[in-house]
Automatic annotation (TrEMBL):
Gene name of the record: speE
Pathway: Amine and polyamine biosynthesis; spermidine biosynthesis; spermidine from putrescine: step 1/1
Catalytic activity annotation: S-adenosyl 3-(methylsulfanyl)propylamine + putrescine = S-methyl-5'-thioadenosine + spermidine + H(+)
Organism of origin: Haloferax marisrubri
GO biological process per UniProt: spermidine biosynthetic process
Residue ranges of domain PABS in the record: 297-556
Coiled-coil segments on the chain, per record: none
UniProt protein name: Polyamine aminopropyltransferase
Pfam family, one: Spermine_synth
Binding site for spermidine: H374, D400
Membrane topology: Multi-pass membrane protein
């Protein structure tokens, strides 16, 4: 028989570990569903709600578990969690790695993708009641609880009671607290640790995929530590005591209840021996995955990304191969090659391969349209301002430095603001970007600030003749600020008397609801006039240009035409196209709310 104090300390440590895993699983699934389906608020709220609902169901049903086999049930729970959590993670990834027939209702996919949350929450609900009951059996007189924990618990309890007593009538109770209060204390501490370590260490340090295997490994280790330490206990199905009870009931059982309990113990022992082998295999496998977490993360990520990264094209039209990926503090950077197979809507592209860059869920740059995009962003609106050092331009985003290179040709003064300093540093020496930015970061009239664009505009007193918004689409919550009424109002406030702002925009044909929300938002911010234009490029070398990207010039009043006396060389060379582009009043669409920081148009911009 092991020392009771050591047994108690082991149970408390196991409580901390399983609570750590339980809380962290909740965040892993929330983030995974956000990555797969977008909408951080939606995914986190629904996941947390489902998780706690399932946790409560599991806890409520835990009383029906065999009280004579508490240890065996706890062991089974940990093994099942170690198996189910990574399996559920891979199920969600798999649902987004294959093309599901359109006949399958979206509600079915939504439900299946959240089943792992329910399963893991349900199993986690068993843990605390089982641990509490085992702790009560151990510490029936309170002497096994470490003195420091008893003292700390008493002091905390007295403090809380005193605080509660200022508002409610309380009655102090004497005597030892039940095991529930001690186990709950460790559970809450473990949950806090799981949340902090996940947010500050695991997710930013090793990524989402290795994290799920780290947590499953901890569940497996917890199960093995439990069986190694408590193997001789009478309520543990591997124990000699359990076997002797079974043998005794063969001919000397005195009542049918003891005989039935012994039969259950034998059955549980047979199952648990098989589970022990499973636990050992799972734990060894997860240890190997965690030891090689970089390779595992890269390979599993590539399998998913290569299936989904170009899913806006028809099935089979594009083949993608991920060449590298890394995660900065603010975004997931993916470099890949895509090859046209000739089965899509553009047979002229058959066999063509090009390199592309993706930031998070949005394509940022591809070789075929890198030039035309930045010509549309910079060279077209420069027709509306005077070139030269007295002209001040603000670039929000543009961490690849390519827009800066285009502005350098006009000799203007540039303030450049981008949040991701790590990406900006890498782009300086990356050959993929270097072919376009030509070391523009060394431009002598450039002032670069690593900061959030919205905060920068809140703090600066500068005014600008041209503001260029070189930012990704509103694909997640972190970008909603840059599509808010408050942000566009700040942009308008910092424009000079004749200044304009330029941004890439959602096409009303391809994204009608996004377009309506965008237009209503800039209108609410005080922009009364807009000039919409497409940049065109002969992408398939057939002598005909195709639409590439749509841009919007925004102004709080009347402005000159693009083809006036100040037209740039780029616009003059395409005068036939840009002469037809005219300013018009910013429209307002009924039934679509503008996007605000405190009341985001979430269901349209992100959760679609």
């Amino acid at each position: 028989m092991s020392d009771t104090r050591t047994d108690t300390a082991t149970l408390l440590t196991l409580t901390f570990v399983v609570s750590f895993c339980s809380f962290a699983y909740e965040f892993v699934y929330s983030e995974l569903l956000t990555v797969m389906y977008g909408g951080t608020v939606t995914q986190y709220v629904i996941t947390v709600g489902l998780y706690f609902f399932s946790l409560g169901i599991g806890a409520a049903l835990s009383d029906d578990l065999d009280g004579a086999n508490l240890g065996g049930n706890f062991f089974r729970t940990e093994v099942l969690l170690a198996a189910a959590a990574p399996a559920g993670f891979l199920l969600i990834v798999g649902l987004n790695s294959v093309r599901i027939p359109q006949a399958v209702p979206a509600e079915v996919i939504w439900t299946v993708a959240r089943l792992p949350v329910v399963v893991v929450g349900f199993l986690s609900g068993f843990e605390l009641p089982l641990l509490t009951r085992m702790f009560d059996e151990l510490d029936d007189d309170g002497s096994a609880t470490p003195s420091w924990l008893r003292t700390a618990g008493t002091r905390i309890h007295d403090f809380v009671v005193a605080a509660v007593g200022t508002l409610w009538t309380v009655e102090r109770t004497e005597g030892r607290r039940s095991g529930l209060s001690v186990i709950l204390a460790m559970d809450y501490v473990g949950g806090l640790a799981g949340a902090v370590v996940y947010a500050r260490v695991l997710y930013p340090g090793i990524g989402l995929i290795p994290t799920i295997f780290v947590l499953a490994l901890l569940n497996g280790v917890a199960a093995l530590v439990f069986v190694a330490h408590f193997g001789e206990w009478s309520w543990w199905p591997f124990s000699d005591a359990g076997a002797s009870v079974s043998a005794a009931t063969g001919g000397n059982a005195t009542d049918t209840t003891d005989s039935a309990r012994a039969d259950r113990s034998l059955s549980a022992a047979r199952v648990s021996k098989a589970l022990l082998v499973v636990c050992l295999l799972l734990t060894a496998t997860y240890a190997g995955v965690v030891a090689k977490h970089d390779a595992a993360d890269e390979r599993l990520s590539q399998l998913y990304l290569e299936q989904q990264i170009e899913n806006e094209y028809p099935p089979g039209a594009m083949r993608a191969t991920v060449t590298s990926q890394e995660t900065t503090a603010y975004q997931h950077v993916i470099r890949y090659n895509r090859t046209w197979t000739g089965t899509g809507p553009n047979p002229h592209f058959d066999g063509r391969t090009e390199r592309c860059l993706r930031l998070g869920a949005a394509v940022q740059l591809c070789e075929s349209w890198a030039d035309s995009y930045h010509e549309g962003l910079v060279d077209v609106p420069m027709s509306l301002v005077d070139p030269g050092p007295d002209t001040k331009v603000l670039v929000v985003g543009g961490g690849d430095w390519i827009a800066i290179d285009h502005l350098r040709e006009y000799g203007v003064t540039v303030d450049h603001v981008d949040l991701d300093g790590e990406f900006m540093r890498d782009a300086k020496t990356d050959p993929f970007f270097g072919r376009w930015h030509d070391d523009a970061y060394e431009y002598d009239r450039l002032n670069t600030t690593v900061a959030d664009g919205y905060r920068y505009l809140q703090e600066t007193n500068e005014t600008y003749d041209l503001v260029l918004l070189d930012v990704p689409g509103a694909t997640d919550d972190d970008l909603l600020t840059l599509y808010s009424t408050e942000f566009y109002r700040s942009v308008r406030t910092h424009l000079s008397e004749d200044g304009v702002a330029v941004t890439w925009g959602y096409s009303p044909d391809a994204y009608p609801e996004h377009h309506k929300a965008f237009v209503n938002t800039v209108g609410a911010a005080g922009f009364t006039n807009e000039l919409s234009y497409w940049v065109r490029e002969d992408l398939d070398d057939d002598g005909e240009t195709e639409r590439v990207e749509q841009f919007y010039v925004l102004a709080p009043g009347e402005r000159p035409r693009l083809t006036g006396d100040g037209a740039t060389r780029y616009v003059r060379a395409r005068e036939e196209h840009y002469a037809a582009v005219e300013w018009r009043a910013v429209p307002h669409y009924r039934g679509v709310r503008e996007n605000s920081i405190f009341h985001p148009n979430y269901d349209i911009l992100v959760d679609t």
